[in-house]
């Protein structure tokens, strides 16, 4: 007579069914840690003429997501630069036209994200494995 015991498979199936409830909070926390690391790196990378740009960089956490960026309206122009010279109409309130020379890109946010990406990915995988496999 052959006797097959499938109780371990049943336990595995139950563990896999309950995994999302255990994994999701751990992954969410790891994503948040990644967001704060990106914020810190971006603040270090940002040009420091006055320090306003760097100090305006914040992190907003969502569910399994984060958004890091500056609160000042010119942050994107610093990151990406401008397309070249452009006119400033009515400069100084005198009704004259002045040409702004444009600015070169000074990336601070993209490099911060790129530098942390693999660390966050590894953290997410470890959190998921720890909560799934115990």
What report would you give on this structure?
The chain is α+β, with helices and mostly antiparallel strands. The protein has one domain. Helices cover 56% and strands 17% of the residues. It has helices at 7-45, 52-56, 75-80, 109-133, and strands at residues 57-62, 65-70, 86-91, 96-100. The strands form two sheets. It has a two-stranded antiparallel sheet with strand order 1-2. It has a two-stranded antiparallel ribbon with strand order 3-4. A hairpin with a 2-residue loop joins strand 1 (57-62) and strand 2 (65-70). The radius of gyration is 25 Å and the shape is rod-shaped. The mean pLDDT is 89.
Coarse shape: rod-shaped
Query: What is the CA-based Rg, rounded?
Result: 25 Å
> How do the strands of the widest beta sheet line up side by side?
1-2
Reading the helices and strands in chain order gives HHEEHEEH
Overall average pLDDT: 89
- Unreliable spans: none
How many domains would you count in the coordinates?
1
What's the main sheet like?
Answer: 2 strands, antiparallel
- Give the number of helices: 4
The oligomeric state of the chains shown is single chain
Helix-residue proportion: 55-70%
Distance between the termini: 35 Å
InterPro entries: HK97-gp10_tail (IPR010064)
Pfam families: HK97-gp10_like
């Amino acid at each position: 007579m052959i006797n097959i015991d499938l109780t371990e498979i049943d336990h595995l199936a139950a563990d896999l069914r309950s995994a999302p409830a255990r994994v999701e909070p751990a992954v969410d926390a790891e994503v948040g840690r990644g967001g704060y690391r990106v914020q810190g790196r971006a603040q270090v990378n940002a040009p420091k003429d006055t320090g306003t740009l760097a100090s305006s960089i914040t992190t907003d956490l969502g569910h399994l997501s984060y958004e890091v960026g500056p609160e000042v309206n010119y942050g994107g122009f610093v990151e990406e630069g401008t397309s070249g010279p452009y006119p400033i109409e009515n400069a100084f309130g005198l009704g004259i036209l002045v040409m702004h020379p444009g600015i070169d890109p000074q990336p601070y946010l993209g490099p911060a994200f790129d530098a942390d990406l693999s660390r966050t990915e590894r953290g997410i995988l470890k959190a998921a494995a720890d909560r799934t496999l115990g």
